[in-house]
Amino acid sequence: MSSRRGTTLALLGLLAGFIVVLVVIDRVSPAPEGPPSSSYATTPLGAAAYASLLDRAGIPVRQVRTPIADREPREGETLVILDPDVMEPEEADAIRAWVEGGGRLVLGASSEVAWIEQLLDDPPRWTSADSDEHVPLVPIADVRTVVSFDRTGFDDLGGLLPLLGPPRTPLAAFAPLGAGHVTLLADTSPLTNRGLARADNAAFALSLSGDAPVAFLETVHGYGVSRGFGGLPTSVKWALLGLALTSLVALWAAGKRFGDPEDEDSDPPPPRVEYVDALAGSLARAKPEKEHT
Fold it and tell me: Does residue 17 share a domain with residue 53?
């Protein structure tokens, strides 16, 4: 029984140690993760640094994981949408209605947005840019040069006003829409983690907020309202997983049989004293008698 208990405790100890190591590794050296241009993402193509920059500048920041069609941004917020993966037609209509009602939208995409015509009556077209260096075409505080990586710009601006050159293929453009306005970016790389520190990219990123609170729309990157197990913090998930594995090991140890099963119908072994007496008697009877000479 003691051997069995020792084996169980050893297994539980190894399992607990394994969980502790995983948690420590996750805390000390978390791997970069997240979809491109998401304000949650810490990869080079993510925008977590942008959200952090706004926060350090005293600009309130939040991530929106509820569709705009279900809940509009808060009053006075600037809605930021970067490289949207998906956009349902009713969501695009809701965003346009919100902007027309006085909202401010920053929409950045490094390639043509399929639903742009639902947002703007006369949208621009994406094209290859002449340069990766862009200078303001209108005054922008503390911005002299913005550097991009993807070399995309706008062609045929339609009703938009260029903000960042070159004039033929501007990187950024502005469009009034109802009581609100839209700022379009043809290349989101200046706002990403790898690009924010280049030239005056950080100052340009701050200017896009308009000194207003910023809401990053994360539904376009696959994030939604988490409920149930998915809504728990990662550390709690690890703890629950550890408890589940520990329970399985305990059940396995409790149910494991060491040796052959005992026959319940067999007679129990005799007491030790009776056994020794019986054995001594058997030996005495089996001992040959001494021969008489």
Answer: no
pLDDT on residue 258: 53
Instruction: Examine residue 280 and state whether it is found in any structural domain, yes or no.
Output: no
Cα–Cα dist 18/10, whole Å:
12
Together in a domain, 146 and 246: no
Report in angstroms the alpha-carbon separations of 169 from 122, 154, 188, 204: 17, 5, 15, 18
- Give me the residue label for tokens 């075409």: 137
Question: What share of residues in the chain are helix, strand, coil (percent, to 5)?
Answer: 35, 15, 50
This model's pTM is above 0.90: no
**Residue 46: what pLDDT?**
96
- Structural domain span for residue 28: 1-33+233-258
pLDDT score at 216? 98
Res 207: pLDDT: 97
Same domain, 20 and 152: no
